[in-house]
Amino acid sequence: MGPGSLQATVRSLYVHVPFCSHKCHYCDFYSLVDQQNRQDSFTQRLIRELHALAPFAAGAPLQTIFVGGGTPSLLRPDLWRQILSAVSRDFDLSDMGPGSGEFTVECNPESVTPELLDVLAGGGVNRVSMGAQSFRERHLKTLERKHNPENVARALELARGAGIRRHSVDLIFGIPGQTLDEWTADLDAAAALGTEHLSCYNLTYEPGTAMTARLKRGEFQPAEEDVEVDMYIRTVERLRRHGFDRYEISNYSKPGAESRHNLVYWRQGQWLAAGPSASAHVAGWRWKNRPRLDDYLTQDQAGLPEAIDIESPDSGRALHEWAWTGLRLREGIDADELFKRASSWSEGAPPRLQALASVLQSRGHLVCRGTRWQLSDAGMLLADGVAVDVMAAIDG
Ligand code: SF4
Questions:
Q1: Phi–psi pair at 106, nearest 5 degrees
Q2: Where does the pLDDT of residue 7 fall: very low under 50, low under 70, confident under 90, or very high at 90 and above?
Q3: Which one in 57, 99, 122, 149 has a CA-CA gap of 20 to 30 Å to 209?
């Protein structure tokens, strides 16, 4: 099974470009070091896949597209031109104007050029997400990120010059050796760039990465947990001073500048996916393209690559996912909908959930506004634990 047999009208698309100039040792995204020799074949294969996916978005314009990776800005501008013209040929992009649709491309500050940004803007891209991670060379070196911190401002200026007016900047905290003051300075530096969206993730040690292996060998000391908590609290406070509000546990925006594409994920909407390792969610089904470029280039079932990790619709799983990601959003979850979905799963769930809500409210972790349940600042710090309690109350 895969997308081939589904009937759906999907309005979001994720595209994965699997090339990077270097494999950063903390990263577990699927990417390989770009030798420039497979960009052409990848592009032609991607165009075939996009064409095969187009019927699932027929009948309504796409509202969000996100091209991530990897490092999409490493692709040559002439190949980008081909991809963008394929997207506009196969999909309805009439909603992609300012204030409605969102077409984001992830960029590395080092690899953007005026030519590339002109091509992106000309093809409908209206937002870039810039991987800054840190403004200190020492910490970039720890992460094995190769760019010069000063290039982030330059890259955003180039994007503005090309007419791309929406920007996001990614930062990482909890880097070994990073102090709270250094992190605060990073937040200030990011806010000074004039961006209206920031993603701030703490460094995680994913299984199988080179950095996790080095940690296990005792080559460095990870940040202490209480330092990471202080950094998280500082992030929320400092960014509020700069006019950003947290709308998701790790994402901050000026009013109205939330990432519309990522909200589709967090609200458990539907999206198509193209490129090796890309994951899709359509009509309750989830699947992932096999994360191997060689397979992607050679396996072609009427344009679609082999799908793995296929999960069929499951109301219990969908309820858990919806509650889990919804609680991490500022908007929270609707209690009426929670009760309705939970009672069809377990009859005793609504009273258990109501009792849990009362406890969480009394501890100051949950705020109930009408039927909306939203985690407080203190609750966000414990979001994973709260979500586990909610799951337990659903399951009984
Ligand atoms: S540039 Fe990004 S996607 Fe590529 S290896 Fe580094 S962290 Fe991973």
A1: -75, 135
A2: low
A3: 149
Distance 27 CA to ligand 1 centre (A): 6
Buried-state track 99-111, b at ≥16 Cβ within 10 A, e below 16: eebbbbbbbbbbb
Quick one: pLDDT band at residue 1, thresholds 50, 70, 90?
A: very low
Q: Give how far Cα 335 sits from Cα of 11, 247, 324, 328, 343, Å.
A: 26, 19, 13, 15, 12
Does residue 71's CB lie within 6 angstroms of at least one atom of ligand 1? yes
Rounded to whole angstroms, the Cα distance separating 90 from 56 reads: 11
Instruction: For ligand 1, say whether the CB of 68 is within 6 Å of any of its atoms.
Output: no
Cα of 64 vs centre of ligand 1, distance in Å, is 23
Gap from CA of 351 to ligand 1 centroid (Å): 45
- Point out which residues pair with 252 in neighbouring strands: 198, 246
Segment 325-353 mean pLDDT: 95
Task: Looking at the CA of residue 70, tell me the nearest atom of ligand 1.
Answer: 3
Question: Best mutation site among 16, 19, 23 for ligand 1, i.e. most ligand atoms within 8 A of its Cβ?
Answer: 23
Pairing of strands 19-20, 32-33: parallel
List the end-to-end C-alpha distance of the chain, in Å, as a whole number.
Answer: 32
Q: Which domains does the chain have, with CATH numbers?
A: 3-266 (3.20.20.70), 315-395 (1.10.10.920)
Q: Are 326 and 269 in contact (CB under 8 A)?
A: no
Asked if the model's pLDDT at residue 300 lies above 90, the reply is: no
Q: Give nearest CA residue, ligand 1 atom 7.
A: 27
26 Cα to the center of ligand 1, angstroms: 8
Residue nearest to atom 2 of ligand 1 (CA): 70
pLDDT tens string 241-267:
999 999 999 999 999 999 999 999 999
CA atoms within 13 A on the CB side of 396: 11
Residue of 16, 30, 71 with the most ligand 1 atoms within 8 Å of its CB, for mutation: 71
